[in-house]
Amino acid sequence: MKWLAVLILAASVAACSGSSSQPPAAAAPPPVDPATAATLSGQVLLEGTPPESNVIRLDGDPKCVALLNGEERRTEYVVVGPGHSLQNVFVYVKDGLPPALYPVPATPVVIDQQKCRYVPRVLGVQVGQQLAIRNSDPLLHNVRAEGKINQPFDVGTPLQGIEIKKTFATREVMVPFKCQVHSWMEAYVGVLEHPYFAVTDGSGHFTIPKLPPGTYTIEIWHERYGTQTQQVTVAAKDSKDLTFTYKTS
């Protein structure tokens, strides 16, 4: 009977060992190889007559009036540059990237409160990356982030030079920022799990570098004209240009 007990014990050990074994974890994709990385560039245009910007009345805060010293503050819903180019458009890779944990930059992204406006008006940040909210004005501002997916927050920045740092936990395009003290102050933050995004400059141009070869859905976002998408395929060491066009009507 001893030999039978030994066999039963051995079988039990083997069964337990088999049930607890796990398949090997899938290897993480390697970092983008600089030797094969591609670059995506382009421009966003506005077809038609853009709406006029309006002068913002600052009478409600004499400190803002004094700070601007006669300078006008105008609405920035639509900012058009040379050749009907459109500024402040958020451009990003929406789909197609390989699943990976993309490194989070150690350097914070800065949004400043300068002369009673947010600078920049549109920006991007990675999930987990610090967003430094700075107040360069000698007066009280308030920062209200109205995320629908990320946790909203509402903080005061009462002193010149103060800086508050926040992070976002998940992807969200876009998170509106407002100032409860100055109703005209608005900004928008795009939160992504990867670094492949850009904002169009004064000539409507954008560049997304170091993109791994592949086929991607590129989406653009504008606060007044909404979103558009295009699909693009980039090969190793490729350089591609895209043009997006919004219409005013």
Fraction of residues in H or I helices: 10-25%
For CATH, the homologous superfamily of the largest domain is named as Immunoglobulins
CA-based shape: globular
The CATH topology of the largest domain corresponds to: Immunoglobulin-like
End-to-end Cα distance, whole Å, is: 91 Å
Q: How is the biggest beta sheet arranged?
A: 5 strands, mixed
Series of secondary-structure elements, N-terminal to C-terminal: HEHEEEEEEEEEEEEEEE
Structural class: mainly beta
CATH class of the largest domain: Mainly Beta
Structural Rg: 25 Å
- State the helix count: 2
Query: How many strands in all?
Result: 16
Strand content: 35-45%
The low-confidence parts are 1-27
Number of domains: 2
CATH architecture descriptor name of the largest domain: Sandwich
Describe the protein in words.
With 249 residues, the chain is mainly beta. It has 2 domains: 119 residues, Immunoglobulin-like, CATH 2.60.40; 88 residues, Immunoglobulin-like (Sandwich), CATH 2.60.40.420. The strands form 4 sheets. Strands 5-11-10-7-8 form a 5-stranded mixed β-sheet, with no helix packed on it. A 4-stranded antiparallel β-sheet has the order 12-2-14-15, with no helix packed on it. The longest helix is centred in the first third of the chain and has 19 residues. It starts with a helix and ends with a strand. The relative contact order is 0.25.
Structural features:
single chain; 249 residues; mainly beta; Immunoglobulin-like; 2 domains; five-stranded mixed beta sheet; four-stranded antiparallel beta sheet; disordered N terminus
